Amino acid sequence: MPSAPRSTRARIREFALSLPEAVEEFPWDESAVVKVNKKIFVFLGAEGAEAPGISVKLRDEEAHGHALAVPGAAPTGYGLGRAGWVSVPLVAGGAPVELLCDWVEESYRTIAPKRLVARLDG
What we know:
By secondary structure, this protein is of the alpha+beta class. The protein has helices at 3-18, 61-68, 97-111, 114-121, and strands at 22-28, 31-36, 39-46, 53-57, 74-75, 85-89. 39% of the residues lie in helices and 27% in strands. The chain has a six-stranded antiparallel beta sheet, covered by helices on one side. The termini are far apart.
């Protein structure tokens, strides 16, 4: 993986794990996910993946449309796309890391219990 996508993935991972009660798990070998309350809010994939990317759940129509406008982005497979999940590639010159982190936070807010969202806002 080129250094820019590796650095972007590391920053997204760090941000996701900074959210209240977020934990990293590896349910499929090296493929990482970050969960809150035992529910996935971001798929990070494997650290050394050839085609790195993340998947997030975006309920906000504007954010969802914006994410799908990123070159190479698509509704997440396995039927998750119908529930608002979007897979976004991490490539040099792609979506800025700050925007990707905003989408991770929106995904967290969609998945997390209200008490944790309130903690995030507090």
